[in-house]
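For the sake of clarity, the format in which proteins appear in this thesis is described at this point. The record quoted next illustrates the convention:

___
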Amino acid sequence: MNASRWNVFETLIRVLTESMFKRLRKWVVTRFFGHSQQRARLVSKDGRCNIEFGNVEAQSRFIFFVDIWTTVLDLKWRYKMTIFITAFLGSWFFFGLLWYAVAYIHKDLPEFHPSANHTPCVENINGLTSAFLFSLETQVTIGYGFRCVTEQCATAIFLLIFQSILGVVVNSFMCGAILAKISRPKKRAKTITFSKNAVISKRGGKLCLLIRVANLRKSLLIGSHIYGKLLKTTVTPEGETIILDQININFVVDAGNENLFFISPLTIYHVIDHNSPFFHMAAETLIQQDFELVVFLDGTVESTSATCQVRTSYVPEEVLWGYRFAPIVSKTKEGKYRVDFHNFSKTVEVETPHCAMCLYNEKDARARMKRGYDNPNFILSEVNETDDTKM
């Protein structure tokens, strides 16, 4: 009895040790070698493009400053806020120096010991600090009433008008850039999510590649259109190697691929027929393929009427052959439709042909079995029957 318990204990220790070593080996491989084994992808799962431009000429870089509005909008927030603060502080200090120069030239500063009946260009400017404060008051139209321009010199009046106009321009540009950055439809795209994996299974008697997409907001995307691009390296008949060659992939739902009623999660699918680039792939060779499937969803934001684009990508490791998505929409007792996002990317294994060609060959064989065939060598001859029986 004790020996049997000891054997069970040894078996348990061995199983736990093997499991621990497997997990440790998996962690080491993922931690130190996982990045080197990952496939290079042009579009990340969250839609960012993994591409860089090298050896760009200086003239081409100058174009970014010509289109300064788009350049500022595309900047990251930390750079945008740096430009925002620098623009205001720089303009205030620059015009503060000009106001100080006006007071210095007109001999309004205390070190010149102006007479009692001396009328300065600007009242109460006693140094560079007071000139900076007056510049700030002028540009942001605070106007404390302690410092003001007099009618003594035209230079101060011209400088006041010039700073007021330039201040409105700077204020409009920077505040408009901040507002446009906040309201960009790119943030609306964050509430559109795709399934983690794509699946391949039968749908309607056809072999299809399926992807699930959901709108996390109750507001709709108007005029939504969904499509895909298959990126792979191809060799032309002339021997030219094209890296990132783009092949159109048509995705549809049961009602088409345009003007989607995108209020609940949709399962879009691509029919793998003779014109599909997936037609010659099989379940055994899919993981060995070198491609990237990029899926795009274009639409118009209902609240702002701005267009936005959502995109994601799938590599061969993220395409599951022989699976379908688990249902996520149900109806409650109160009559409402409930979407369970816990099962959004959950898949269920189903019986699926291991290649599209096999499915079509099977259909052709079944169709031939239902049809009859004529034998051209068969000849029907008539036989005359005679009654040789005599009574």
Remarks:
- The first strand starts at residue 192 and ends at 194.
- Helices lie at 2-37, 58-66, 68-74, 77-105, 128-139, 154-182, 356-370.
- The chain has two domains: 60-183, 188-369.
- The CA atoms of residues 6 and 122 lie 99 Å apart.
